[in-house]
Structure formats: structure tokens, C-alpha cells
Amino acid sequence: MRTADVVIVGGGPAGLAAAALIHEKGIREILLLEREKTLGGVLRQCIHDGFGLTRFQEAMSGPEYAKKFIEKVQKLGIPYLTNASVICIEPSREDGQKAAPEDDIPASARICDKTGASGHIPEKQLENSNASRYKIVTYVSPSGLEKVRTRVLILAMGCRERSRGALAIPGERPPGVFTAGVAQSYMNLYNHMPGKEVIILGSGDIGMIMARRLTLEGASVKAVFELLPYPSGLPRNMEQCLNDYGIPLYLNTTVTDIHGKDRLRGVTVSEVDENQKPIPGTEREYSCDTLILSVGLIPENELTIDAGVRMDDRTCGPLVSEYLETSIPGIFAAGNVLHVHDVVDFVSEEAELMAESAALYLAEGGLPRGKIKVEPGNGVSQLVPQLVTGTRDFEISLRVTSPKKNLTLTVSQGGKVIASRKIKKAIPAEMARIPVSAGSLSGEEALIVSAEEGARV
Amino acid sequence: MSLKERTYTCIVCPNSCEITVKIRDGSVSEVSGASCPRGEDYARQEILAPVRNIATTVLVRGGSIPLCSVRLSRPIPRERIFDAISAIHEVSLDAPVRAGTVLIQDLLGLGVDVLLTRDVPALEGPFQKNE
pTM of the predicted model, to two decimals? Predict the structure, then answer.
């Protein structure tokens, strides 16, 4: 069996940044596996500009941002395979036998359902007892079914789009309904125009970017409808993708029926009440041949779940420590597979932080295990990391439950505030961050992270 | 004396700052809310004449994919966006092409170049499909 020190699953921004940094740390036995024909992940189809402002102080397109990392990986001679789809990850004991199941959480508890808001952090602490030294990665490539045994496994699979099926929109099932990312790949990689008269459901960033893209290529984008009382994407995209082109955004409104047989010919939209239930009598009809869905992204964790890694129902990603190590020692995660990001620069940064931890794991033969829970308090919907060791300073990345102004982020332990940060505004579309110093922690009581308007410091 | 106030959502970076500009007697008297100098420049420019960068694609013959993405070297006046798109669409290329290549110099006399933003290698064999 082929062996490696580090196997990276996914050749998008997280996998590429991790590969380069792992190599920088002197580790040479690396294998990066990418299922697409070329490296770059979703950046390949994100041709708009605005990438790299934080990291490179210049605005570039997605392909250009990806190219910087792809060229680095190629220049360093890091081994990678494209057209290689990982189908199974399994921890195995040192003797090569399959390890016992990592925990006894029923599969149902790990199934991610974002609509059910309650989170799930297992009571049982992470332990090193069941540590498996090696992981076996099975992948399919043009040369067949292959296996590689590795000491460190890096999860960098990114995320996928929520689809019509997940929304359960009633109505007929004609062609002409696309997720925003699929429409984006059709237009930007395959030269296919999805349609001429377009309605967009969901105000996620990709949906708004596609509203502009479709308009520039000659389509008529009639409106964007958002179920929530606030936009799901960044304000800058509302400004430059919708307002610039006079495309209206209707909040508290959703698509409640889809019409058409051989091709989509229209949709019914309805206003919704505060419980997001359609209000009878508010129906409006729109004719269109294309419906674009931009209704959320879901970390792609089927491999993670099958490997027995513990999951967080809030982020839909694995539970990790501040080393970005999962519940299985030696398996790490970063980027959109861990939690959905809004800015790629932070994905690269997070992947590098994770790669440093992975190098440390290899050098030390293991890392401290997270014992102290980090839990969302008032105003916080999700956060990473969820279990910390308290052995080094770290940063908590979080999302707020609703738009807030002049707010204070606080981290408290046992009623005592151990870190706080005032920020001018926060919206669910934007990840907020708060640094915590390891020295401020005492004992193993859970940390509670809150975001409150005008709160005490 | 006239005093006007306008608020802009900055598009320079994902922070999306809300920037308020006070205009006294036709000239900018105060800019507030920007968390960086680029934001302040953006708001001042937005009052004079909004500018935007745009991205589109051009056809590529014989490449691994049938098109190549492009963007502008600098933003152009917002009202010229559709003229710019039409001018760019008149051009097509033969693979292979390289990212960074200038496709059109001084687009429509606007003083900006159109740049290719990705490589498109030539199609290698008859069975190679799009990426």
C-alpha cells in the first residue's frame, strides 16, 4: 500500500494552502487528492474580482487567486492527483487492523439538519485512548481503486449547495431550476447560458453575483426573493450586483409554486409571516424560464461522518479543537468543510493554521486534546473551535443570529468575562472573530460566547 | 448654504462599511464610517462618478474549456459597463492562452486594459472533455 505522512482531501483553496505550508515545515511525504480534472476548487468558476484583498492587498478574480497557490504547489513539487475521488476514510490501528468505532453516537444524531437549530456536542470528552496511528484513504482514479495509508489526514472538501429538494418547494418539476453555483459553472466554464428571464430565490452571495453575471450576458433578472427579514449575503454584493442594475430584492418573501412542463414558465411567490409561513392572499405570479436558488451552503462531510468523526449540528462540520484537530487524532479540517466562510482569504489563513498543527502533530506524535467546551450564548448561532485545550492562544470564529449594531462579543467562563471585543456591526452573512488568550482560562468549565448589542465589557 | 448627506455601502472589501458623506455647498465637507483610506476614496469617487470593475468571458477555440475569463485592469465608469462588455465579446482567441495576457489595450479609450484571468491549455486528445 502507498504510504504518506499527510494526505489532503480536496484541491481547493484550503487544500492548496495547507499543502504548501506542510511542505514549508519540512514534510515531504504528502499526497493531495482532487476529484475534479484540475486544481482550484470553486475558485475556478468565480471569475468576478474581490479575492485576495486581505492577503495580497489587491483585488483579483477567483482563478487568479487559485493560480497563486496552484503554482506554489507545483513549484514545490508536492505530489497531487486530479480525477481522484476519495470514497472512504477509515482510522486503523498501528497493526493495520481496522480500529473500533470511535464513539457510540447514533448515526441519526450526526445527520445534519440546519433547520433544526439545536446543536449537539457530545457529553463524552474526547480521549486519546482510541487514537489510531494510521488512516486508510481509499480513492478512485483513472488507474482504478487505490488505497493510501497516512499518519495525518487533512479534510478540505469544501461545501456544496442546498438544492430544491432540501427546500421542498411544491409545484411541477420542469427544467430551468438551477442552484447558483451550477448556473455559474455553466456560464463561466462551459459557455452555456441558463436562460433569458430569471428569478432568483435566496440572497446568498453567489445568487447576487449570478444576478449581475446573467444581466451582463443579456438575461433579464426580474427579482431576488429572500425568505428572511434580512439579506443572506454581504452588503457590498447588494450594492454592486443588485442596486447597480436596478434588480429589486424582496425580503420576507419566498417561492411557493413552480409552473411548467417542458421548461419552467413561471413561479408563484408569497410573503411570509414571522414564522416564515406563507401568508394566504399575498401570492404574486412571475413569468420566467429560469429559477436560480441561492439558499445556503452545506459543508460536504459524508466522508467525515463515515469515518466516525464527531460532528457539530450547528456548523454541519466536524467538532475541532483550537488546533483544528477533529475527534479522531491526526484528522484535521479547515475551510468550508469545517464551517462555511464568506471570504477566501480567511480560508487560506485557517488552512495554514491547521497545517502548522498537523506538522506539530507529526513532530510531537500527538496534540493536546480539547476538553473545554466552547458554546454559543446569546446572539451567536455557531462557532469554531468547539472544544479547546487551553494550551495556546486561539481565535473563535462565529456567526451572529441576526444583524446587530454596536455590539460586544464576549467570552465568559463561569460567569467571568475572559475576553471581549466591541464591533460596530455584525450580520449573519459575515463571520466575526474574537481572540482569546490561553492564560485567561481557568479550569475546565465551558466557555460561553455571546454577541449582544450595547452589552457590558 | 446647502447641506446634503449621503450614505454608501463600500464595495472595496467584504467589510462593507457604511460610509456617510456630508456635502456642503456642492463640495465634500466630511467623510465618516470608513475603516480604511480606500473606503474614503471610494465614497468620494461614488459622489463624483461611480466606477466598477467587471468580469466576463471570451470564446476560446481548441482549448480544454470553450472560454476564458477576463477582467479589467482598473474600474471604469459604471455607465460604460455594457459598452465594455459588448466590445470584449467581439474578441475570440485560440488556445493555448495564459493568465495575465492583455486581451485589449485601452478599452474604448477608457485607459484600462482587459486581462485574461486564467490559463486555457490546448485540448490534448480527442477524448479529453471539458473540466
Answer: 0.90
